[in-house]
Design goal:
Helices cover 11% and strands 46% of the residues. The chain contains three helices and 13 strands. The protein has a six-stranded antiparallel sheet with strand order 1-8-3-4-5-6, with no helix packed on it.
């Protein structure tokens, strides 16, 4: 389910909350992602548990568990069962993963949620940190204050959504996927920009 659209945030400056995460029910089997309202952080729901990450410095962040947050756009799904397979060794980068996912799900119902669990050799994630009071009318303005973090040699979970029809809604205009990564120790979480995968298990939502 998609609530509002990324393009409304990036081009029209609609930064206020369109959905309160504590209203999404049932919690069990709930997965979702998006930015925090006013682009002050990143949001992730993993099996009903809501995480919010916020920038504390150019090298540190804080990750909290709380559903008392809202989002200007958000995508979520209820997944009762996953079907799993190992990610092939040949799929190492985010681009290779997106291509693999597209090819292997041609006959599946789309859009769909997916999950990756395992070892990430290296990843770049970002957390939005828009200065208070900033007006936004372009993606460049929307990404002011965005802070990048490097994740290396970490066990992690990645929650994602795949769609060929929602570019500008909940995926960027040049991608069919939107993914957020959280490390196993819950110390780092953010929007996944780049990745080098180790041994990973891919979970696809049952149709």
């Amino acid at each position: 389910v998609a609530v509002a659209a990324m393009r409304q945030v990036m081009w029209e400056g609609k930064l206020e909350g369109q959905v309160s995460l504590d209203t999404l029910v049932p919690k069990k089997g709930l997965y979702g992602l998006g930015p925090e309202s006013y682009l002050t952080g990143e949001l992730l729901i993993d099996d009903g548990v809501v995480y919010v990450s916020r920038v504390t410095s150019d090298s540190t962040m804080v990750v909290e568990r709380t559903s008392e947050v809202s989002a200007p756009f958000f995508v979520y799904a209820h997944v009762d069962e996953w079907r799993s397979r190992s990610l092939p060794d040949s799929v190492k980068t985010q681009g290779q993963f997106e291509h693999f996912l597209d090819l292997t799900t041609k006959g599946d119902k789309r859009p769909f949620a997916f999950k990756l669990e395992g070892e990430v050799q290296k990843a770049v994630i970002h957390v939005q940190n828009l200065p208070e009071g900033t007006t936004v009318s372009s993606p460049q303005q929307a990404h002011q204050g965005q802070t990048d973090y490097i994740v290396t040699e970490a066990s992690a979970t990645i929650i994602g959504f795949f769609s060929t029809e929602h570019q500008g809604v909940y995926t960027h205009h040049d991608s069919f996927v939107h993914m957020h990564l959280i490390t196993e120790d819950k110390q780092l979480m953010g929007h996944l920009d780049e990745a080098s995968f180790g041994a990973m298990t891919l979970y696809l939502s049952e149709l």
